[in-house]
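Hey, quick one: can you model this chain's 3D structure?
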Amino acid sequence: MRQIRRGIFAVLVVLLSWTAPISADVSDHISAIEMSQTWSYSYPDAPFSYNFDIVVLSDTTVQGISFESPTGGVFNLTYVGSGEWEHAGSYATPEELNVYGDGDYVFTINYGGSFDTTSVFYGTPDGGVIPQVTQEPVITNPTHEQSQVSTTVILSWGQCTDTNANSIDIEWWPVDASGLEGWIRFEDCSVSRYGPVSLTPGRLYKASLAFNHAYFGINSDGIHYVVDKDSEGAVLFTTIPAPGWIPATIDIKPGSCPNPFNVKRRGVLPVAILGSEDFDVGMIDVASIRLAGVDPNRSGYEDVATLVMDGDECECTTDGPDGYLDLTLKFKTQDIVEALGEVADGEELVLTLTGVLLDETPIEGEDCIRVIKKKPLRHRENRGRRLHPHR
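Sure thing. Here's the predicted structure for all 391 residues.
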């Protein structure tokens, strides 16, 4: 069976603390009803579908539930466990949704010989028709089928511009789990990111994003309900296994190649930790960063440099932005000079940057500098001496 979104239904669990006049005891057995009509874009490579879903929460006395739609269609709900009953209708054309319609839905509750009824109005509180949200929700981070996703990630998506939407839901869970791992709802439809979110290492996850037009209420029998018309999209992604550390690409003096380092100067030494499709620099704990054991005195976020992928830490490029956000850092030049100790004019040094992600996963990266304006020491092999904090 197609999996129905759970996030918006979680609001009903919270709302069960509300009170309302009760005119029948059916509310002793039925605690909540969700009804949603969805334009489902699903995964980027999956077929589009038009869905109508109903979820009902009951106690153990309920043996069966059916409902009649405003257009006269009668449907049975399926019991899926843990007190949940579902109807999941999925169609190829919007015309097939006409078997449901807007208006009063009458639910018949079967206790195994005796019956109750209750109704929910599928529409706006003033008796109108709920407008259908149609914009495709697109999750931009992580991307669909992305692997090696950090266990601490910021979820981001294309901004909702559909004027029919009044809220946004995003939820995520391991696909082999029985329930949600996380869910958040925004009343502000201009929101386009959430996090950081902590994920379990080495798991296949699903994230689902919905743009909603939803209303919450209590019917005349005291049963909490939500009625909704929405659109939804989703991605699958895999988190990284728990590693000893993650390599980070750094660029000392972005835009410069090679990287001259004048030990006579005061000022600051600029350094960038480079972002990429697979590495979100927003997940770095900036306070943990050290270059040759020195902490930065300033930081920011800007796309300033392009990755060099040939594996030699002393290779560099003058290429500028590549479309991925970088973490920019400034280190006091004389603090670095003090950490280096005695160096020779023209000596090329490999500096090591260390730190941790927000989930405390260690990161490490290296880049080179060429020392200038320092009296030379005795002749020695100059290339490749590495300076990093004591491990």
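One thing worth noting: The two ends are 52 Å apart (CA to CA).
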